[in-house]
């Protein structure tokens, strides 16, 4: 008898509507087809956010907030090695650069705190987008999330849900090669993912994810090497308890790159996208270690306890001739550079503990009581900073070598402490109505030290604290098992950097954020059709600006309103698609009266219109002894500015990108050919003002092979 291909090996194939397949197949295929019940079945792109929105299991139709999920099926089909590859397939998202938090959500910039790992802050890498090797899925909560997660900006939160040990043994090896077609640059990646049980009772589980990659960018002299290791253990003493212990190590070495520089704020003055303005050999390095511990216990059908801890030790170092300013002499414009050597160290030690209980105090309700908080250490050391020169041509740079002297700058460090208590109650008022209310109290404290290394090692020291109360609430009207309408309100806060003093020398109050949201959610029977629509109105206030007196004041405001629509459908087991559209109208709604340079302007990297489509198709019959499929993705982003200041911003043009993939699977092997930016369109992913413009990847071809054991 011919062995049938298991269902887990006939998944993850995608689409192209015009894709044609050869009709022949291998000998003995008819016998195999008799044994395979469903051919071409694929994992769905649609996955509900399981616990990020409320920190408890909740049906999406009964959650009064918007959530989006990028699951492993999407990441696999895109062959995404970092999360930024998938950002274009999320509503409300726009990239703003190359760092880990270089994106905007619903018209608002993101802090590092807006990216969390299993619900706690602290990334092992800061310069680059998080790697996906250890990512099970990415859950995005739109709007303020401070009530449950603490201080952050109001646009939304990205929660990276990591891979956990599984009882079923499996091992996969993935190898990917990539090539920039017009630049003769390539790269190679390899990863291992192995999980299973360490004892017969399956109470002790393990998982190891590791990988290496070396990439040669289309940018001149820009290369990178990455190493990562994610070992983890899980202990399940009984059916009601689970303890997970996870370790992580990440090292990324790359060439420092400030991107391109424009003249007179005109994007058309840019040099070719491969042009490099730093010195060959300049570096940007990241290294981080971490440990996470999570324990959960189901005490009864009505009560459960959850405890988490996460610690990260991170160091990044930049040693480069960074782009500094334009100089014009004898009619020639050149780029002046600055010798900068920066060493940063960070530590994160954060915990979260909560109880979730279901009760009947007159009405059925589920509430959560919790505590979270921790300690963050920051150290910024300007080993070299002030020496300028070594000018370059913008069009055809002739590198000078490292001719500038090392002149140290400042040494700064912070010790930051946060403590927060939160409560949330979800009350079932009737068969159709659900009410949600939540509140949080926070205390933030910290000390700051500044030393002027380049002068006489003198400096200043400050010690400040602040308190804050945040609330949220929402109401859901559930029409039936498929349709619900909702409305909600949520607040956020973000402490001002220490020191941020007013005219009296007092530390300024935290930034505040708030959002009003309303929408509906539809889910068909079986989950094959899902439609979500949300209107949002987000306001960020208490932004520090220099007032009329010359002192800092809480003047600035950024407002954004818009509409998000997401449709996901799977008409058959071998065909699915998802569509998304976002309209965002954002502006600097309040600023110092004399700051007409910003008032009324949109903030940086907030396009009015964004849209995406992604679809995949699996051919329903075996081909060449295996199975084939194809995918197609399309992303659109409106023009947007790099900054809100009229005198410094650059208008980046709109762009439309297409991604395609072809897939072949036989026995335990999966092969994929992916082409990103099929039309080879020139576009820009982010930057800073008119001084740093980062071009996006040109056409890139990736060939990958995955072997499952």
Automatic annotation (TrEMBL):
<keyword id="KW-0998">Cell outer membrane</keyword>
<protein>
    <submittedName>
        <fullName>TonB-dependent siderophore receptor</fullName>
    </submittedName>
</protein>
<keyword id="KW-0813">Transport</keyword>
<feature type="domain" description="TonB-dependent receptor-like beta-barrel">
    <location>
        <begin position="237"/>
        <end position="678"/>
    </location>
</feature>
<dbReference type="Pfam" id="PF07715">
    <property type="entry name" value="Plug"/>
</dbReference>
<keyword id="KW-0408">Iron</keyword>
<feature type="domain" description="TonB-dependent receptor plug">
    <location>
        <begin position="61"/>
        <end position="156"/>
    </location>
</feature>
<dbReference type="InterPro" id="IPR037066">
    <property type="entry name" value="Plug_dom_sf"/>
</dbReference>
<dbReference type="InterPro" id="IPR000531">
    <property type="entry name" value="Beta-barrel_TonB"/>
</dbReference>
<comment type="similarity">
    <text>Belongs to the TonB-dependent receptor family.</text>
</comment>
<keyword id="KW-0406">Ion transport</keyword>
<dbReference type="Pfam" id="PF00593">
    <property type="entry name" value="TonB_dep_Rec_b-barrel"/>
</dbReference>
<keyword id="KW-1134">Transmembrane beta strand</keyword>
<keyword id="KW-0410">Iron transport</keyword>
<dbReference type="GO" id="GO:0038023">
    <property type="term" value="F:signaling receptor activity"/>
</dbReference>
<keyword id="KW-0812">Transmembrane</keyword>
<dbReference type="InterPro" id="IPR010105">
    <property type="entry name" value="TonB_sidphr_rcpt"/>
</dbReference>
<keyword id="KW-0732">Signal</keyword>
<keyword id="KW-0798">TonB box</keyword>
<dbReference type="GO" id="GO:0009279">
    <property type="term" value="C:cell outer membrane"/>
</dbReference>
<dbReference type="InterPro" id="IPR012910">
    <property type="entry name" value="Plug_dom"/>
</dbReference>
<dbReference type="GO" id="GO:0015344">
    <property type="term" value="F:siderophore uptake transmembrane transporter activity"/>
</dbReference>
<keyword id="KW-0675">Receptor</keyword>
<dbReference type="InterPro" id="IPR039426">
    <property type="entry name" value="TonB-dep_rcpt-like"/>
</dbReference>
<dbReference type="GO" id="GO:0015891">
    <property type="term" value="P:siderophore transport"/>
</dbReference>
<dbReference type="InterPro" id="IPR036942">
    <property type="entry name" value="Beta-barrel_TonB_sf"/>
</dbReference>
<keyword id="KW-0472">Membrane</keyword>
């Amino acid at each position: 008898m011919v062995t049938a291909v298991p269902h887990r090996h006939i998944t993850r194939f995608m689409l192209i509507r015009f894709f044609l397949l050869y009709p022949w197949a291998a000998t003995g295929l008819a016998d195999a087809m008799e044994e395979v019940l469903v051919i071409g079945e694929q994992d769905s792109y649609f996955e509900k956010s399981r616990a990020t929105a409320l920190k408890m299991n909740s049906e999406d139709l009964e959650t009064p907030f918007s959530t989006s999920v990028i699951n492993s099926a999407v990441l696999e089909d895109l062959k995404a090695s970092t999360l930024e590859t998938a950002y274009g397939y999320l509503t409300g998202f726009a990239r703003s650069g190359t760092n880990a938090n270089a994106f905007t959500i619903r018209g608002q910039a993101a802090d590092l705190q807006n990216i969390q790992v299993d619900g706690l802050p602290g990334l092992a890498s800061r310069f680059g987008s998080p790697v996906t090797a250890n990512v099970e899925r990415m859950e995005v909560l739109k709007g303020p999330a401070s009530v449950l997660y603490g201080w952050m900006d109001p646009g939304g939160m990205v929660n990276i849900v990591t891979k956990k040990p599984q009882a079923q043994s499996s091992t996969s090896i993935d190898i990917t090669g990539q090539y920039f077609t017009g630049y003769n640059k390539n790269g190679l990646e390899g990863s291992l993912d192995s999980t299973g049980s360490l004892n017969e009772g399956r109470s002790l589980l393990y998982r190891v994810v590791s990988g290496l990659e070396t990439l040669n960018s289309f940018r001149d002299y820009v290369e990178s090497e990455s190493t990562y290791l994610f070992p983890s253990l899980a202990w399940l003493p009984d059916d009601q308890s689970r303890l997970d212990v996870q370790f992580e190590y990440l090292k990324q070495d790359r060439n420092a790159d400030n991107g391109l520089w424009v003249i007179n704020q005109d994007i058309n003055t840019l040099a070719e996208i491969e042009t490099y303005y730093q010195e060959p050999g300049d570096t940007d390095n990241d290294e981080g270690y971490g440990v996470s511990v999570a324990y959960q216990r189901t005490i009864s059908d009505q009560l459960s306890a959850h405890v988490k801890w996460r610690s990260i030790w991170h160091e990044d170092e930049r040693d480069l001739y960074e782009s500094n300013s334009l100089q014009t002499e004898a009619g020639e414009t050149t780029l002046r550079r600055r010798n900068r050597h920066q060493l940063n160290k960070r530590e994160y030690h954060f915990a979260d503990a909560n109880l979730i209980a279901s009760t009947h105090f007159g009405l059925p309700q589920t509430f959560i009581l919790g505590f979270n908080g921790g300690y963050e250490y920051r150290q910024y050391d300007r080993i070299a900073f002030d020496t300028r020169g070594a000018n370059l041509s913008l069009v055809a740079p002739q590198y000078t070598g490292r001719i500038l002297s090392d002149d140290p700058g400042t040494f700064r460090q912070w010790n930051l402490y946060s403590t927060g208590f939160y409560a949330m109650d979800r009350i079932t008022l009737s068969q159709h109505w659900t009410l949600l209310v939540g509140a949080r109290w926070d205390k933030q404290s910290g000390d700051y030290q500044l030393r002027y290394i380049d002068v006489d090692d003198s400096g200043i020291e400050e010690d400040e604290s602040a308190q804050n109360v945040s609330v949220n609430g929402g109401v859901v009207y559930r029409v039936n098992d498929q349709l619900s309408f909702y409305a909600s309100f949520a607040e956020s806060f973000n402490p001002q950097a220490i020191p941020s003093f007013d005219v009296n020398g007092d530390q300024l109050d935290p930034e505040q954020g708030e959002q009003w949201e309303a929408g509906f959610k539809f889910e068909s029977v079986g989950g094959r059709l899902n439609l979500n629509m949300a209107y949002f109105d987000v306001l960020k206030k208490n932004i520090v600006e220099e007032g009329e007196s010359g002192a800092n004041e809480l003047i600035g405001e950024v407002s954004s309103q818009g509409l998000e629509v997401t449709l996901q459908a799977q008409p058959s087991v071998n065909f699915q698609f998802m569509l998304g559209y976002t309209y965002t109208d954002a502006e600097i709604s309040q600023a110092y009266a004399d700051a007409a340079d910003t008032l009324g302007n949109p903030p940086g990297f907030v396009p009015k219109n964004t849209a995406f489509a992604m679809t995949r198709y699996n051919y329903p019959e075996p081909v060449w002894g295996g199975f084939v499929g194809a995918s197609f993705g399309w992303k659109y982003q409106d023009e947007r500015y790099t900054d809100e200041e009229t005198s410094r911003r650059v208008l980046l043009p709109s762009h439309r990108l297409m991604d395609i993939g072809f897939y072949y699977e036989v026995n335990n092997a999966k092969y994929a050919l992916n082409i990103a930016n099929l039309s080879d369109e020139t576009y820009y992913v982010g930057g800073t003002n008119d001084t740093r413009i980062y071009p996006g990847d040109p056409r890139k071809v990736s060939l990958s092979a995955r072997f499952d054991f």
